[in-house]
Specification:
12 helices, 10-stranded mixed sheet, Alpha-Beta Plaits, 16 strands, 422 residues
Length: 422
Amino acid sequence: MRGAPSADAAVGMEVYVTDGAPCTGRAKALDSDFRVQEYLSLEGLQSERGEGYVPLYRVEKRGIDTMHLAKELAAVLKSRVSYGGLKDKRAHAVQYITPTSSRALSPARASSEGWEATLEGFLPRPLSRGQVVANSFELILRDCCSEVGERANDALETSAGHRLPNFYGHQRFGLRGVGTHRVGREIVKGRFEEAVRLLLCEPRERDSSEAGEARQAFREGRYEEGVGLLPRGQEEEASVARALARRPGDWIGALRSVPVKLRRLYVQAYQSYLFNRTLSRALRSGLDISSYESGDNWSRLGEDGLTLSRVGGVRDPPEQGAVPMVQIPGFAIRDYGSRFDACLKEVLEEEGVTGGEFYVKEMLEASAEGGFRVPHLLVAGTSAESGPGTATLKFTLAKGQYATVFIREVLKPADPANAGLA
Protein backbone atom coordinates (compact mmCIF):
# COMPACT_ATOMS: atom_id res chain seq x y z
CA MET A 1 0.00 0.00 0.00
CA ARG A 2 1.37 3.39 -1.02
CA GLY A 3 0.82 6.79 0.50
CA ALA A 4 -0.90 9.38 -1.68
CA PRO A 5 0.32 12.89 -2.58
CA SER A 6 -0.70 15.89 -0.50
CA ALA A 7 -3.38 16.99 -2.98
CA ASP A 8 -5.18 13.66 -2.56
CA ALA A 9 -4.65 13.56 1.20
CA ALA A 10 -6.20 17.05 1.45
CA VAL A 11 -9.54 15.54 0.41
CA GLY A 12 -9.12 12.40 2.51
CA MET A 13 -7.71 10.01 -0.13
CA GLU A 14 -4.58 9.07 1.77
CA VAL A 15 -3.54 5.77 0.14
CA TYR A 16 -3.28 3.71 -3.04
CA VAL A 17 -4.04 -0.01 -2.85
CA THR A 18 -2.28 -1.17 -6.04
CA ASP A 19 1.47 -1.71 -5.84
CA GLY A 20 2.63 -0.40 -9.21
CA ALA A 21 4.90 2.63 -9.41
CA PRO A 22 3.49 5.97 -10.59
CA CYS A 23 2.95 6.21 -14.35
CA THR A 24 2.88 9.43 -16.32
CA GLY A 25 -0.30 10.16 -18.24
CA ARG A 26 -3.11 12.66 -18.65
CA ALA A 27 -6.86 12.25 -18.56
CA LYS A 28 -9.12 14.85 -20.22
CA ALA A 29 -6.41 16.26 -22.49
CA LEU A 30 -9.49 16.81 -24.66
CA ASP A 31 -13.07 16.90 -23.41
CA SER A 32 -13.81 14.08 -25.85
CA ASP A 33 -11.26 11.90 -24.00
CA PHE A 34 -13.74 11.54 -21.13
CA ARG A 35 -17.12 10.15 -22.19
CA VAL A 36 -19.86 9.19 -19.75
CA GLN A 37 -23.34 7.78 -20.33
CA GLU A 38 -25.94 7.72 -17.56
CA TYR A 39 -28.30 4.72 -17.26
CA LEU A 40 -31.68 5.01 -15.54
CA SER A 41 -34.58 2.90 -14.36
CA LEU A 42 -37.48 4.51 -16.22
CA GLU A 43 -40.62 2.76 -15.05
CA GLY A 44 -43.73 4.54 -16.26
CA LEU A 45 -42.13 6.21 -19.29
CA GLN A 46 -44.71 6.81 -22.02
CA SER A 47 -44.75 8.52 -25.39
CA GLU A 48 -47.82 10.71 -24.75
CA ARG A 49 -48.18 13.28 -21.99
CA GLY A 50 -50.70 12.16 -19.42
CA GLU A 51 -52.21 14.34 -16.71
CA GLY A 52 -49.57 15.28 -14.15
CA TYR A 53 -46.73 13.85 -16.27
CA VAL A 54 -43.43 15.67 -16.88
CA PRO A 55 -41.22 15.55 -20.00
CA LEU A 56 -37.96 13.58 -19.87
CA TYR A 57 -34.97 14.98 -21.76
CA ARG A 58 -31.84 13.19 -22.88
CA VAL A 59 -29.11 15.83 -22.69
CA GLU A 60 -25.71 15.69 -24.36
CA LYS A 61 -23.31 18.20 -22.85
CA ARG A 62 -19.67 19.24 -23.17
CA GLY A 63 -17.73 22.04 -21.53
CA ILE A 64 -20.51 22.92 -19.08
CA ASP A 65 -21.27 21.60 -15.59
CA THR A 66 -24.63 20.09 -14.67
CA MET A 67 -25.73 22.97 -12.42
CA HIS A 68 -25.24 25.61 -15.11
CA LEU A 69 -26.83 23.35 -17.71
CA ALA A 70 -29.82 22.86 -15.42
CA LYS A 71 -30.21 26.60 -14.98
CA GLU A 72 -30.24 27.18 -18.76
CA LEU A 73 -32.65 24.32 -19.49
CA ALA A 74 -34.95 25.48 -16.68
CA ALA A 75 -35.24 28.85 -18.41
CA VAL A 76 -36.29 27.11 -21.63
CA LEU A 77 -38.85 24.84 -19.95
CA LYS A 78 -40.20 27.56 -17.64
CA SER A 79 -39.77 25.30 -14.62
CA ARG A 80 -37.18 24.19 -12.14
CA VAL A 81 -35.54 20.95 -13.19
CA SER A 82 -34.47 17.71 -11.56
CA TYR A 83 -31.61 15.36 -12.45
CA GLY A 84 -30.07 12.18 -11.13
CA GLY A 85 -26.49 13.30 -10.60
CA LEU A 86 -23.76 15.80 -11.38
CA LYS A 87 -21.54 15.22 -14.39
CA ASP A 88 -18.06 16.62 -14.95
CA LYS A 89 -17.71 19.87 -16.88
CA ARG A 90 -14.65 18.58 -18.78
CA ALA A 91 -16.40 15.66 -20.44
CA HIS A 92 -18.75 14.59 -23.18
CA ALA A 93 -21.65 13.42 -21.04
CA VAL A 94 -25.14 12.07 -21.63
CA GLN A 95 -27.57 12.51 -18.77
CA TYR A 96 -31.30 12.88 -18.21
CA ILE A 97 -33.27 15.83 -16.85
CA THR A 98 -36.95 16.53 -16.16
CA PRO A 99 -38.75 19.69 -15.10
CA THR A 100 -40.33 19.53 -11.66
CA SER A 101 -43.64 21.07 -12.81
CA SER A 102 -46.23 19.16 -14.82
CA ARG A 103 -47.09 22.51 -16.45
CA ALA A 104 -43.60 22.94 -17.90
CA LEU A 105 -43.09 23.44 -21.60
CA SER A 106 -42.06 20.35 -23.59
CA PRO A 107 -40.31 21.28 -26.86
CA ALA A 108 -39.05 18.35 -28.92
CA ARG A 109 -35.55 19.81 -28.83
CA ALA A 110 -33.66 22.57 -27.06
CA SER A 111 -30.03 23.61 -27.23
CA SER A 112 -27.49 26.24 -26.33
CA GLU A 113 -23.72 26.52 -26.31
CA GLY A 114 -22.36 23.28 -24.86
CA TRP A 115 -25.56 21.22 -24.71
CA GLU A 116 -28.45 19.75 -26.67
CA ALA A 117 -31.63 18.27 -25.15
CA THR A 118 -33.96 15.83 -26.89
CA LEU A 119 -37.43 14.87 -25.65
CA GLU A 120 -37.53 11.13 -24.86
CA GLY A 121 -41.05 10.79 -23.45
CA PHE A 122 -42.99 11.55 -20.29
CA LEU A 123 -42.73 10.33 -16.69
CA PRO A 124 -45.37 10.35 -13.94
CA ARG A 125 -43.01 12.20 -11.60
CA PRO A 126 -39.77 14.21 -11.80
CA LEU A 127 -36.48 12.37 -12.06
CA SER A 128 -34.73 11.50 -8.80
CA ARG A 129 -31.26 10.32 -7.90
CA GLY A 130 -32.71 6.93 -6.96
CA GLN A 131 -33.56 6.24 -10.59
CA VAL A 132 -29.92 6.32 -11.68
CA VAL A 133 -28.58 2.77 -11.98
CA ALA A 134 -25.04 3.25 -13.27
CA ASN A 135 -22.70 5.29 -15.46
CA SER A 136 -20.57 3.88 -18.27
CA PHE A 137 -17.23 5.46 -19.18
CA GLU A 138 -14.90 5.47 -22.15
CA LEU A 139 -11.65 7.23 -21.27
CA ILE A 140 -8.51 7.98 -23.22
CA LEU A 141 -5.26 8.60 -21.35
CA ARG A 142 -2.51 10.42 -23.28
CA ASP A 143 1.24 11.01 -22.87
CA CYS A 144 1.48 7.78 -20.91
CA CYS A 145 4.44 5.81 -19.63
CA SER A 146 5.23 2.53 -21.36
CA GLU A 147 3.85 0.54 -18.40
CA VAL A 148 0.36 2.07 -18.60
CA GLY A 149 -1.19 -1.14 -19.95
CA GLU A 150 0.21 -3.13 -17.05
CA ARG A 151 -0.96 -0.51 -14.54
CA ALA A 152 -4.46 -0.48 -16.06
CA ASN A 153 -4.73 -4.26 -15.89
CA ASP A 154 -3.58 -4.20 -12.26
CA ALA A 155 -6.39 -1.77 -11.44
CA LEU A 156 -8.95 -3.86 -13.34
CA GLU A 157 -7.90 -7.03 -11.52
CA THR A 158 -8.04 -5.26 -8.16
CA SER A 159 -11.50 -3.89 -8.93
CA ALA A 160 -12.71 -7.37 -9.90
CA GLY A 161 -11.77 -8.47 -6.39
CA HIS A 162 -13.75 -5.58 -4.86
CA ARG A 163 -10.57 -4.07 -3.43
CA LEU A 164 -10.41 -0.63 -5.11
CA PRO A 165 -11.56 1.97 -2.56
CA ASN A 166 -14.76 3.84 -3.35
CA PHE A 167 -13.43 7.30 -2.52
CA TYR A 168 -15.23 10.47 -3.47
CA GLY A 169 -13.11 12.01 -6.23
CA HIS A 170 -11.67 15.51 -6.54
CA GLN A 171 -14.69 16.74 -8.52
CA ARG A 172 -16.74 16.45 -5.33
CA PHE A 173 -14.63 19.13 -3.66
CA GLY A 174 -14.34 21.81 -6.35
CA LEU A 175 -13.75 25.49 -5.65
CA ARG A 176 -10.51 25.57 -7.65
CA GLY A 177 -8.15 24.75 -4.80
CA VAL A 178 -10.01 25.86 -1.66
CA GLY A 179 -12.30 22.84 -1.33
CA THR A 180 -16.06 22.91 -0.84
CA HIS A 181 -15.56 20.59 2.13
CA ARG A 182 -13.73 23.35 4.00
CA VAL A 183 -16.71 25.66 3.50
CA GLY A 184 -18.99 22.82 4.59
CA ARG A 185 -16.98 22.24 7.75
CA GLU A 186 -17.46 25.87 8.79
CA ILE A 187 -21.21 25.70 8.12
CA VAL A 188 -21.51 22.53 10.21
CA LYS A 189 -19.55 24.18 13.04
CA GLY A 190 -21.75 27.30 12.84
CA ARG A 191 -18.82 29.50 11.83
CA PHE A 192 -20.62 31.29 9.02
CA GLU A 193 -18.27 34.26 8.81
CA GLU A 194 -15.36 31.91 8.24
CA ALA A 195 -17.35 30.05 5.56
CA VAL A 196 -17.86 33.35 3.74
CA ARG A 197 -14.19 34.23 4.14
CA LEU A 198 -13.19 30.96 2.48
CA LEU A 199 -15.58 31.59 -0.39
CA LEU A 200 -14.54 35.17 -1.04
CA CYS A 201 -11.07 35.82 0.34
CA GLU A 202 -9.02 32.63 0.23
CA PRO A 203 -6.65 32.67 -2.78
CA ARG A 204 -7.13 29.92 -5.37
CA GLU A 205 -4.25 28.09 -7.03
CA ARG A 206 -5.29 29.24 -10.50
CA ASP A 207 -6.63 32.73 -9.77
CA SER A 208 -6.06 35.30 -12.47
CA SER A 209 -4.59 38.66 -11.50
CA GLU A 210 -8.12 40.14 -11.66
CA ALA A 211 -9.47 37.46 -9.30
CA GLY A 212 -6.58 38.13 -6.92
CA GLU A 213 -7.44 41.84 -6.89
CA ALA A 214 -11.10 40.99 -6.27
CA ARG A 215 -10.20 38.85 -3.26
CA GLN A 216 -8.06 41.64 -1.86
CA ALA A 217 -11.05 43.98 -2.20
CA PHE A 218 -13.26 41.45 -0.41
CA ARG A 219 -10.74 41.14 2.43
CA GLU A 220 -10.94 44.93 2.85
CA GLY A 221 -14.75 44.96 2.78
CA ARG A 222 -14.98 46.59 -0.68
CA TYR A 223 -17.58 44.14 -1.90
CA GLU A 224 -19.12 46.05 -4.80
CA GLU A 225 -15.69 46.90 -6.16
CA GLY A 226 -14.60 43.29 -5.83
CA VAL A 227 -17.61 42.04 -7.79
CA GLY A 228 -16.61 44.29 -10.66
CA LEU A 229 -13.15 42.72 -10.71
CA LEU A 230 -14.27 39.07 -10.67
CA PRO A 231 -13.84 37.17 -13.94
CA ARG A 232 -16.92 35.76 -15.61
CA GLY A 233 -18.08 32.38 -14.37
CA GLN A 234 -17.68 33.06 -10.65
CA GLU A 235 -21.36 33.69 -9.96
CA GLU A 236 -21.39 32.21 -6.46
CA GLU A 237 -18.70 34.56 -5.15
CA ALA A 238 -20.40 37.49 -6.87
CA SER A 239 -23.77 36.66 -5.27
CA VAL A 240 -22.24 36.39 -1.81
CA ALA A 241 -20.35 39.68 -2.20
CA ARG A 242 -23.43 41.54 -3.46
CA ALA A 243 -25.42 40.26 -0.48
CA LEU A 244 -22.75 41.56 1.91
CA ALA A 245 -22.68 44.92 0.12
CA ARG A 246 -26.41 45.22 0.82
CA ARG A 247 -26.23 43.89 4.39
CA PRO A 248 -22.70 43.97 5.83
CA GLY A 249 -22.13 41.36 8.52
CA ASP A 250 -25.11 39.20 7.57
CA TRP A 251 -23.03 36.09 6.98
CA ILE A 252 -25.94 33.65 6.93
CA GLY A 253 -27.87 35.86 4.52
CA ALA A 254 -24.80 36.06 2.29
CA LEU A 255 -24.49 32.26 2.18
CA ARG A 256 -28.21 32.00 1.41
CA SER A 257 -27.64 34.07 -1.72
CA VAL A 258 -26.05 30.92 -3.14
CA PRO A 259 -28.53 28.40 -4.66
CA VAL A 260 -29.77 25.92 -2.06
CA LYS A 261 -28.39 22.92 -3.99
CA LEU A 262 -24.93 24.44 -3.78
CA ARG A 263 -25.30 25.20 -0.06
CA ARG A 264 -26.18 21.56 0.52
CA LEU A 265 -23.25 20.54 -1.66
CA TYR A 266 -20.84 22.32 0.69
CA VAL A 267 -22.01 20.21 3.65
CA GLN A 268 -22.19 17.05 1.53
CA ALA A 269 -18.59 17.67 0.47
CA TYR A 270 -17.57 17.72 4.14
CA GLN A 271 -19.42 14.44 4.66
CA SER A 272 -17.51 13.06 1.67
CA TYR A 273 -14.19 14.21 3.08
CA LEU A 274 -14.94 12.49 6.38
CA PHE A 275 -15.96 9.32 4.55
CA ASN A 276 -12.71 9.38 2.56
CA ARG A 277 -10.69 9.78 5.73
CA THR A 278 -12.62 6.94 7.37
CA LEU A 279 -11.99 4.64 4.41
CA SER A 280 -8.30 5.60 4.38
CA ARG A 281 -8.11 4.82 8.10
CA ALA A 282 -9.71 1.42 7.50
CA LEU A 283 -7.26 0.57 4.73
CA ARG A 284 -4.24 1.70 6.75
CA SER A 285 -5.52 -0.49 9.60
CA GLY A 286 -5.53 -3.51 7.32
CA LEU A 287 -9.30 -3.96 7.15
CA ASP A 288 -10.60 -6.05 4.26
CA ILE A 289 -13.06 -3.84 2.37
CA SER A 290 -13.90 -6.48 -0.24
CA SER A 291 -16.33 -8.68 1.68
CA TYR A 292 -18.81 -8.74 4.53
CA GLU A 293 -17.65 -9.69 7.99
CA SER A 294 -19.82 -10.41 11.01
CA GLY A 295 -20.75 -7.16 12.73
CA ASP A 296 -20.85 -5.07 9.52
CA ASN A 297 -23.78 -3.15 8.19
CA TRP A 298 -24.40 -4.74 4.81
CA SER A 299 -26.27 -4.56 1.54
CA ARG A 300 -27.02 -7.28 -1.01
CA LEU A 301 -25.25 -6.83 -4.34
CA GLY A 302 -27.48 -7.46 -7.35
CA GLU A 303 -26.69 -9.94 -10.11
CA ASP A 304 -25.56 -7.04 -12.32
CA GLY A 305 -22.75 -6.34 -9.86
CA LEU A 306 -23.78 -2.67 -9.68
CA THR A 307 -27.03 -2.28 -7.74
CA LEU A 308 -27.47 -2.60 -3.99
CA SER A 309 -30.43 -3.48 -1.78
CA ARG A 310 -31.49 -1.68 1.36
CA VAL A 311 -28.90 -1.56 4.16
CA GLY A 312 -29.11 -4.37 6.71
CA GLY A 313 -28.27 -3.93 10.36
CA VAL A 314 -25.27 -5.41 12.15
CA ARG A 315 -27.56 -7.94 13.86
CA ASP A 316 -29.55 -8.84 10.76
CA PRO A 317 -28.52 -12.13 9.16
CA PRO A 318 -26.80 -11.24 5.89
CA GLU A 319 -28.36 -12.31 2.61
CA GLN A 320 -26.43 -14.09 -0.11
CA GLY A 321 -24.22 -11.59 -1.94
CA ALA A 322 -23.87 -9.30 1.09
CA VAL A 323 -21.19 -6.61 0.90
CA PRO A 324 -20.08 -4.31 3.72
CA MET A 325 -21.40 -0.77 4.08
CA VAL A 326 -19.72 2.20 5.77
CA GLN A 327 -21.55 5.09 7.40
CA ILE A 328 -21.51 8.57 5.90
CA PRO A 329 -21.56 10.97 8.87
CA GLY A 330 -24.64 13.07 9.52
CA PHE A 331 -27.05 13.94 12.31
CA ALA A 332 -28.65 10.43 12.25
CA ILE A 333 -25.46 8.34 12.54
CA ARG A 334 -25.14 5.74 15.29
CA ASP A 335 -22.27 3.70 16.62
CA TYR A 336 -23.32 0.18 15.63
CA GLY A 337 -20.03 -1.21 16.88
CA SER A 338 -18.77 -2.26 13.45
CA ARG A 339 -15.11 -2.28 12.46
CA PHE A 340 -15.75 0.73 10.20
CA ASP A 341 -17.60 2.62 12.93
CA ALA A 342 -14.45 2.47 15.04
CA CYS A 343 -12.53 4.19 12.23
CA LEU A 344 -15.25 6.82 11.78
CA LYS A 345 -15.28 7.56 15.50
CA GLU A 346 -11.52 8.24 15.45
CA VAL A 347 -11.84 10.55 12.45
CA LEU A 348 -14.70 12.54 13.98
CA GLU A 349 -12.75 12.96 17.22
CA GLU A 350 -9.71 14.20 15.31
CA GLU A 351 -11.91 16.64 13.37
CA GLY A 352 -13.62 17.84 16.55
CA VAL A 353 -17.08 17.35 15.09
CA THR A 354 -20.11 15.30 16.16
CA GLY A 355 -22.91 13.82 14.15
CA GLY A 356 -25.40 16.11 15.84
CA GLU A 357 -23.66 19.18 14.43
CA PHE A 358 -24.83 18.20 10.94
CA TYR A 359 -28.26 19.39 12.08
CA VAL A 360 -27.56 23.04 11.33
CA LYS A 361 -30.17 24.96 13.31
CA GLU A 362 -29.32 28.32 11.77
CA MET A 363 -29.50 26.88 8.23
CA LEU A 364 -31.80 23.89 8.33
CA GLU A 365 -31.81 23.49 4.56
CA ALA A 366 -28.10 22.60 4.71
CA SER A 367 -28.55 19.91 7.38
CA ALA A 368 -27.40 16.40 6.43
CA GLU A 369 -28.81 13.17 7.81
CA GLY A 370 -26.02 10.85 6.77
CA GLY A 371 -26.28 7.40 5.23
CA PHE A 372 -24.21 4.48 3.99
CA ARG A 373 -21.76 3.87 1.13
CA VAL A 374 -20.12 0.69 -0.10
CA PRO A 375 -16.36 0.87 0.62
CA HIS A 376 -15.19 -0.57 -2.72
CA LEU A 377 -15.83 0.42 -6.32
CA LEU A 378 -18.47 -1.66 -8.10
CA VAL A 379 -17.10 -2.12 -11.62
CA ALA A 380 -18.52 -4.02 -14.61
CA GLY A 381 -17.97 -4.26 -18.36
CA THR A 382 -14.25 -3.59 -18.17
CA SER A 383 -11.68 -3.45 -20.96
CA ALA A 384 -8.30 -1.80 -21.48
CA GLU A 385 -6.24 -1.24 -24.61
CA SER A 386 -2.88 0.48 -24.77
CA GLY A 387 -0.68 1.76 -27.57
CA PRO A 388 2.33 4.04 -27.86
CA GLY A 389 1.75 6.75 -25.27
CA THR A 390 -1.99 6.10 -24.90
CA ALA A 391 -4.50 3.86 -23.14
CA THR A 392 -8.24 3.48 -23.64
CA LEU A 393 -10.29 2.26 -20.69
CA LYS A 394 -13.94 1.22 -20.76
CA PHE A 395 -15.95 0.33 -17.68
CA THR A 396 -19.27 0.87 -15.91
CA LEU A 397 -19.53 2.09 -12.32
CA ALA A 398 -22.42 2.04 -9.87
CA LYS A 399 -24.16 5.38 -9.38
CA GLY A 400 -22.31 7.92 -7.28
CA GLN A 401 -18.88 6.43 -8.03
CA TYR A 402 -16.00 8.26 -9.68
CA ALA A 403 -14.09 7.23 -12.78
CA THR A 404 -11.22 9.49 -11.70
CA VAL A 405 -10.84 7.40 -8.53
CA PHE A 406 -10.23 4.39 -10.77
CA ILE A 407 -7.74 6.31 -12.94
CA ARG A 408 -5.76 7.58 -9.92
CA GLU A 409 -4.83 3.95 -9.16
CA VAL A 410 -3.50 3.59 -12.72
CA LEU A 411 -1.46 6.81 -12.86
CA LYS A 412 -0.76 7.68 -9.20
CA PRO A 413 0.05 11.28 -10.22
CA ALA A 414 1.95 13.61 -7.94
CA ASP A 415 -0.22 16.46 -9.25
CA PRO A 416 -3.80 15.22 -9.81
CA ALA A 417 -4.84 18.51 -11.44
CA ASN A 418 -2.14 18.36 -14.10
CA ALA A 419 -3.11 14.73 -14.75
CA GLY A 420 -6.72 15.77 -15.37
CA LEU A 421 -8.11 14.19 -12.22
CA ALA A 422 -9.05 17.36 -10.32
